[in-house]
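[User]
If only I could read backbone structure tokens as easily as an amino acid sequence. I have put the entry right below:
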Amino acid sequence: MTNSLNIKKIVIITAFLSALLMGGSSILAADNKATNTNISFNNQTENSLEIVNVPSLNFGTHTSGDKTLAKDTSDKPHIHIKDSTGTYNGWDLTVKTEGFYNQDKLNKNFRLFFNKPSIVPTENNAAIDAPVFSSEQVEVGTTPTQILKASENKGIGHWLANFYDDNMFKSEGIQLQIPTSAYQGHYQANLVWELNAGPSK
């Protein structure tokens, strides 16, 4: 008899606790509404075709008539192109200049040359995927001249075209032929770089 009462008591206590929990649930669920929940994700990689860097050139100071060829003295001149478009269509980079000005006087007889650079990735890209320099030497003229190009499925990611040697203090990759018509004064030229999407020609 005692055992029977004890078992019942246990059951009651258990039932009571369950009733309290159920009662609490019914109160919380007395009213309900459905809500719309949305989530969206953006591509973490910015899709762009971009000129990250082109070199600023400095050919130093020379005595008039002393030299016919000057070397660029800037620090580690390089081109940096980024292609994260995901289109794999390739691209090409052109450059042009009007010529060198001494104040407001234009001298078109200077000749600017970019010699073939070393082309390296900034990421783990394969060498076979590299863009290429257009020729062994590119002369910059008054019309756009192709200097770097990537065919389809090439040039993806970040690429550097380095016109310097790590073992050399000064660059020999970029040179300026000085005309005899260059007189005393400061000469300056603007280079216009243009990056075009699509298969290179």
